[in-house]
Amino acid sequence: MGRITLDKVTKSFGEVNVIPPLDLTINDGEFVVFVGPSGCGKSTLLRLIAGLEDVTSGQIRIDGEDATRMPPAQRRLAMVFQSYALYPHMSVRKNIAFPMKMAGLPEDEQKRRIDSAAKALNLTDYLDRRPGQLSGGQRQRVAIGRAIVREPSAFLFDEPLSNLDAALRVGMRLEIMELHKRLATTMIYVTHDQVEAMTMADKIVVLRAGNIEQVGSPLELYREPRNEFVAGFIGSPKMNIFGGNPAQQHGAAKIGVRPEHIAASTETGTWEGVVGVAEHLGSDTFLHVHETGLAETVTVRVDGELPVKHGDRIFLTPEADKIHRFNEQGLRA
Amino acid sequence: MATQHARSAARLMLAPAVILLLGWMLVPLTMTLVFSFKQYLPLRGGDLGWVGFENYVRFVTSSAFWPSIWATLIIVGGVLVITIAFGIALALLLDQPMWGQGIVRILVIAPFFVMPTVSALVWKNMFMDPVNGLFAHLWQFFGAEPIQWLSQASLPSIVLIVSWQWLPFATLILLTAIQSLDSEQIEAAEMDGAPWRSRFIHIILPHLSRAITIVLLIQTIFLLGIFAEIFVTTQGSFGTRTLTYLIYQRVLESQNVGLGSAGGIYAVILANIIAIFLMRIVGKNLDA
């Protein structure tokens, strides 16, 4: 079980209000990702759930039980930190055993759980090493192992992949997702990387300045962003957002079109511009088009083979049913 | 990459410092060695010639020798235990966020800036004086008989004075060590269900072990040679005659340079044994 409910939770540090009243329900077994730019309060929110910070007001319930004033150890949550927070003077085995030792589990049960966690995480050969002798990915797995053996009702991940290099990050991402499928335990995952959010989440919570901007599945957020912020944050490359004349033609204060929903042609089209940088990725090419009169730069995703280069004139046509309209307040119209 | 030229230039430029240091160390050491094999009584005939190992035998067989070793060990050991235990406690307290942290930290370090002679005199006259000292007044306030600190409890008194001087040093080193502890480790331990006591034993103390060995090493080396505190308080009486003080007495009070020099060589050997022993522990600790 791992159903977590936040009821009008607020947090202020002195005068600074980091999290205004916030409601959120996380269902049992869900993979929830908190995503937002730096300083949006996503880590603070996670620490409130973990019990590492006290809430200023409001209530946190875990499986229906009021956990607002519960010390972290009693919430049956396990956390994986950004710095891994392994105990450097203990071997991997002792690191993983530590929470069980604190809980007073019998030795043979401890050993059984360590062995199964080590097997699941490919750590069997490293059990007697110190964290300092391991690579970043291995340390990350030890941290996850230390979380698994507690058999918690939910896992909390605080930007766990941001210290890994790009290739390793993709691998660890898959491992964490597989772990979630196997354990079917609630996981809350904090990241500033929208790609991680899109690929991993059952449910994404987009945060800005402590406010929840939108909650939904990755594709819901992609298809129907509730406001301009979510529209710009979810999706890569970023959505193009234009105001002024072209927006008024569509009866909105602002319109947004994703780079992949614009067709490019060298002969005709709705808008016209000059190619600035063309990023060739092989499968796709991202064009940064200038002098369109819409915005300083319009990003377009085109076929990888389209032969365009810096300085070429190009014509752009948006897909009519993929245009997002926003009103004066930036809300979806 | 150092070229041949750069390397010889570096050697040349280092030479004055190295020669000065070597001279500073070697000249007194050689002179002590030479004197230790001589019968040398400055006021009673001067240099009376070589006597072999007689000074060494006399120094060790003197009734004052073993008590002085004990006094040394008790003072060094006592001060180490007190400064490290209280140093850890103070460092933990000073690490907490509080109002006026900067000023409090400077105040804690202050005793280290007071010269040993001055602090020993202040303790002797202001606190430990059996008639006018603050302790005497405190004892009288509760109707107790004031303790004659420096004669009745001479060793503890000296340990107290020296600990007061060295506590800031230990606190400072341990405080920086505590501040370098990753707060996420403590939080992880908290999530892992470790109560404060377990967090201290399993996380904080192992993290401090390196700093503790450094405090141990540096303090031991300096504490073996404390002199001023004994000189201005008990003058070596009431069982406070340490090895250093005994050597001083042999040389200056008995005017027997040869005997004192032999004692000095013993002290050098003792200090080196302890230093090598500690270096090995520290080396092991610093590798990990």
Structural features, described:
By secondary structure, chain A is α+β, with helices and mostly antiparallel strands. Helix content of chain A is 27%, strand content 31%. Chain A has helices at 42-50, 92-103, 107-120, 136-148, 166-183, 194-200, 218-223, 228-233, 244-249; strands at residues 4-13, 16-26, 31-35, 57-62, 65-66, 77-80, 154-158, 186-191, 203-208, 211-216, 240-242, 254-257, 262-265, 271-280, 284-290, 298-303, 313-318, 324-326. In chain A, strands 6-7-8-3-9-10 form a six-stranded mixed sheet, sandwiched between helices. Chain A has a five-stranded antiparallel sheet with strand order 13-17-14-15-16, with no helix packed on it. In chain A, strands 2-1-4-5 form a four-stranded antiparallel sheet, with helices on one face. In chain A, helix 2 (92-103) packs parallel to helix 4 (136-148). By secondary structure, chain B is mainly alpha-helical. Chain B contains 13 helices and two strands, in the order αββαααααααααααα. Chain B has helices at 4-36, 54-61, 65-95, 101-109, 116-127, 134-141, 149-152, 154-179, 183-191, 196-223, 228-233, 243-253, 257-287; strands spanning 38-41, 46-50. In chain B, helix 9 runs antiparallel to helix 10. The mean pLDDT of chain B is 88. The interface between A and B is medium-sized, with 25 and 19 residues.
Quick synopsis:
Chain A is of the alpha+beta class.
Task: Give the key terms.
heterodimer; A: 333 residues; alpha+beta; Rossmann fold; OB fold (Dihydrolipoamide Acetyltransferase, E2P); 2 domains; six-stranded mixed sheet; five-stranded antiparallel sheet; 18 strands; B: 288 residues; mainly alpha; MetI-like fold; two-stranded antiparallel ribbon; 75% helix; 3% strand; globular
Structural class of chain A: alpha+beta
Intertermini distance of chain A: 39 Å
The spatial strand order of the largest sheet of chain A comes to: 6-7-8-3-9-10
Helix share, percent of chain B? over 70%
Report the top-level CATH class of the largest domain in chain A: Alpha Beta
What's the architecture of chain B, going by CATH? Orthogonal Bundle
CATH architecture of the largest domain in chain A: 3-Layer(aba) Sandwich
- Uncertain runs of chain B are none
Radius of gyration of chain A: 23 Å
Question: What does the main sheet of chain B amount to?
Answer: 2 strands, antiparallel
CATH topology label of chain B: MetI-like fold
The fraction of residues in strands of chain B falls at under 5%
SSE class of chain B: mainly alpha
